[in-house]
Amino acid sequence: MKNFEIQGLNFKFLVVYVLCSVLCALPFKAFPLTAEEVVKKSQEAFFYQGKDSKARVLMKLISKSGQERVRELTMLRKNYGASGGEQKYFMYFYQPVDVKDMTFMVYKYPAKDDDRWLFVPAINMVRRIAAQDKSSSFVGSDFTYEDVSGRDIEDDNHTLTKEEKLDAKDCYVIKSAPKAQDVDYAYKLSWIDKGTFLPLKEEYYDKKGELYKVFSADEIKDVKGFPTITKRAMKNLSSGHRTEVTYVKADYNIGIEDSLFSERFLKQPPKKWIE
Amino acid sequence: MKKFSLVHFSVEHPRLIVFLTIIITFAFLTQFPKVRTDTNPKNMLPATSDVRVWNDEVEKTFSLYEDMIVVGIVNEKGILNKDTLGKVHEITNEILKLKGVAARDVNSFPTITNVTAESGALKVAPLMAQVPETDGEIAALQKMLFENPLFINRIISKDGKTTAIYVPLEKGSNGKEIADEIKKILSKETGDEKYYVAGDPVARDTFGAEMFKLMAIFAPIAGGVMLLVRYLMFRDLFLSITLMMDAMISIVCSMGLLIGLGYPIHIMSSMAPVFLMAIATDSMHIFNEFYFRYREKKDKKTAIIETMRAVSRPVRNTALATAVGFGVLLFMNIIPVKVFGGLVAFGTIVLRILSFSFIPAMFTFVKDEQIEKIAHTEDIGSDKTSRFLQKLASIGTHSPKKTVIVGLVFFTIAIAGITKMKVNNNLVEWFKKDSDVRIADTVINRSLGGTSMAYVVATAQEDDFIKTPEAMRYIEGLQQHLEKLSVVGKTTSVVDYVKRINRVLHDDDPKYDVVPETKEMIGQYIFLFSMSAKPADLDNVVDYPFKRANIWVQLKTWDAQAMREVIKAMDKYKIAHPVTMEFKPSGIAYFNLVWNDEVLWDMVMGFILALIAVFAILAVDFRSVKWAVVGYTPLLFTILLIYGVVGFIGKDFDMPISVLSCLSLGMAVDFAIHFVSRLRQRMTETQGAEALSDALLWTAARPGKGIMRNAVLFAASFAVMMFAPLTPYITVGAFIVSMMMLSAVMTIIYLPALIMLLKGWLFKGGTR
Fold it and tell me: For tag attachment on chain A, is the N or C end more exposed, with fewer CB atoms within 10 Å?
């Protein structure tokens, strides 16, 4: 078993290496990137790494006065199509203790409302959850669904406001202003690392023009050649509430079957994916 | 005899004294630019007080806001139409943009969380993200509203004519300023809708702003009236202005000291100038006597010295009594009460020093002819006022028994009235019935759950206990119990959310509108709810470890009494249904109850202490406990009578009234001191050559005129306050006017009666 994994890893590493070299070569093109291109690349690096992925996620929801709520889950994702395209998510909860065995599934479509299902073990029932605005909170945290699975590029007007260094890393600073008034913020500033295209920091400004929410990538690790944000935080400055997310484990290109994303497995998730 | 030399010195060096006085006053005046104000009643209690510590803890635990503005929107034709809903949508969006508004937690049609089952799917989303366009959409909205108990009486009235926008405020924002901004938004709207802005921060901050405006308008008007009345009494502008300056100097010095020491001006200390102006009228006695003496001696300096010799003792002692009456407040618990007491006591001492220096000095500047002219009218025999006073006094002097019996009858009635007195306080009722604040509050409280917010916090012994069906059912039962009270408009708790989810998960079957059977179900339902609702929805009603739950109790009135009822009902339920959870009240309504009670009882305690202290001073001053008892009687009587009337007319015994009791004591005792001192002085002067009844009549006519002038002056200036737009000021005005007149009349009629009746007891050697 162990042997196989190492072998697989080696092979995959090679593939990733090749891919990566191609990607790395891109910024050296003669003409500079447009704001849209930066955002597209950033989404690719942030939400669409690999064909699929698995992460054991620990979320700490911390109130202003320091009270904590914990969410612990395994998040499985599979891409259907290129960056910006369809994706399927499968989440299994370990914590809080009274929701153990609860599962949650999302079909994400570009330019269309998500489909979501939830399995409530206490009454052994799968319920479809109506999709609503994507800027609603993800499992009660300071992150929204969009923060977890990305926002359609076309929904915002993107402008490259400046390029500057953040923590000794060269960044593009992109201003994204939603075209419709469907979210809480008036605009967002993102510091996108020129090297990895991961967002290192995001600032959200409300309709009064005040900064009220800050995202930060606090730890970035290389996982199978994919730079992955393994620690991140979202802090709401007006409520004083914050959420800290740690990827305890992360993996890519693990061969998740299509059949996983079904009502049957929502009720009884395969052991291998939730260990 | 030190003071006496001060008078001599002042008369010999009047210019130096006036110059020094002005310099010192200016020194205090330089502190004025540093002035800070604080109108928040919260600061009546120190931040370390139990109730504030507990309320802060509750606010933190449940991410609550200290302050909330409620905007009521009424359309008599019903609000569920495209037009009105469009306005609600637009107004909400505008409010969200205001600075100081906690936008994330504003609750209104477009923002409030709605849990529904929609074509087989569970939906947790804002109720009205878009304004409905078609009749079908409006009908669907109507169905959602009236099927969800979380909405009824909160954002929609049962008759569908009223909705509300709940606007929580960030810490430290000014409720009146935000309310004004909201009113500006509302004023742009046209149509059938009527708008009302209510809530504690509106009432409180509007009151604060109005209060300062009133002090700025009414203090000068009161001063002006005093000036006018004085001029009419003495026909001498120069002396009237002198008296006015006397008051102003003491106000500047004491307020300067307060500001200089770094204290903010608080609701209570802002009343100090009016109090000092009132106390300053005591120097009237100096003027009164001066004119009489001048008529007798025809020499200004001699008249001044003799006047001061005659009145120094009563003036000094009334000052001492007043200073002590307010000074005892320094020993109370509540800081603004202490500051207020110290401030007025200090001002009183300044006034007295001025009486012995500045005023005699100013006398020397008056032209002799002028004094001659006025003094001419000051003659007991020919003066109408004096004759009238003599007549009054003769009632007591000649029929003492009847007078005392009539007094006893009044006394009994007064006691009956006092027993009827209700201790209550209502911040909103500090505004007049036709004021915006009060109308808004009345309208919203009539149709919705209520603008006054209280919380009942349940604390379990272990974490996660709130998720048990047992805890849920208990809280549900308590809510139902509280909702039976007429003052409670609505209660909301985590149980309501859980029941709602239970029902919605089971295809909106009303059978499932109950607490689920197992802890797992409850835990999972709450999690499900928290997955998509606003974080505040859950945070507001339950703490993180699920050890505590918060029941929101909306009250339909700001009466402190209402909160007392809630607490009583809560305790009763606990006794009838023992449980391992603890229940404690919290919230602004609870705070109002506590601070009102604390300030009120602090004032009552201060009052009792002052009564004792003043009695001691009287005893020392008269060198006789007996005379102190006699002098005390009219004072006590006046106070009893006024409170008796307060009880009979059904006015609540509230904070402003309790503050006044101290003033009444400090003022009313003055008259007795003057009367008794001068009577005894007269008797010594005449060496028993005059009958007691004649001495009494003389006292009533001469120092009695000073007493009457003092009372009239006082009453006239305070009568102005009866035209104020805030009821506490009207109360203060009416109270002082009646108190002054009553205690003056009491002194003139009742003291002679008592003295005649008790003469054998009072004069050991006997008298004629």
Answer: N
